[in-house]
Amino acid sequence: MRIAILGTGTVGRTLAGRLAGLGHEVSVGTRDVEGTRARAEWTYAAPQLASFADATADAEVVVNASGGTVTMDVLAAAGEDHLAGKILVDVSNPLDFSAGFPPTMFVKDTDSLAEQIQAAYPLTRVVKTFNTMSADIMVDPLSLAGGDHTIFVAGGDAHAKTTVTGLLREFGWTDVLDLGDLQAARGLEMWLPLWLRLYGTLGTGSFNIKVVR
Ligand SMILES: NC(=O)c1ccc[n+]([C@@H]2O[C@H](COP(=O)([O-])OP(=O)(O)OC[C@H]3O[C@@H](n4cnc5c(N)ncnc54)[C@H](OP(=O)(O)O)[C@@H]3O)[C@@H](O)[C@H]2O)c1
Fold it and tell me: Ligand 1: does its nearest atom lie under 6 Å from the Cβ of 135?
């Protein structure tokens, strides 16, 4: 599958590396191709780096792995035409670090960043997933508790969720819990204050939700 990753932070690099390793055709979007290429963090085979627009143009699936406060700028740079009709996997969290740590949420309760993306790009099929855990667990669930834990998907397009669930299964996920339409993203994003508190308490991001039922 042709997959564009919009974001070169920990999440973008981790997802790009894993997807490329599985044989997908991955392009990674960034503002400054040469500057990003020169950065030292690229520990796996050099990805196909491109502008946000060029990375997105031929993709079948686009992953938003940008910071929440810049997500709308990144998607605008990718281009409405390039996003139309495509699946957009939204990994972002609406965290505002401008006043320090812990961050506040700039949207919550009655709306979510995923819903704002969907409203701004009605022809794009947004699926919220991955945002409730650290990047290393996203791509390697078996590394934690033998994979006995949960990942969520939410979105209004059933076919898009089926495609994304297929990618999750390639990563090794077995407990994929479909929470229904994109309104579920409110709860998925509001998990973050507790995630951050657990991170501080446990001293590691190696934990996840297990929904026991
Ligand atoms: N880190 C985790 O483990 C984790 C886990 C779950 C969810 N998330 C969420 O995933 C998203 C990505 O997190 P991250 O830590 O990997 O990366 P990040 O540092 O939040 O974002 C990196 C990306 O943001 C872009 N960016 C920064 N400022 C920009 C601006 N003014 N305009 C346009 N683009 C800008 C950067 O572009 P350049 O490439 O041009 O520098 C880079 O591609 C966030 O929303 C985060 O909350 C993270």
Answer: yes
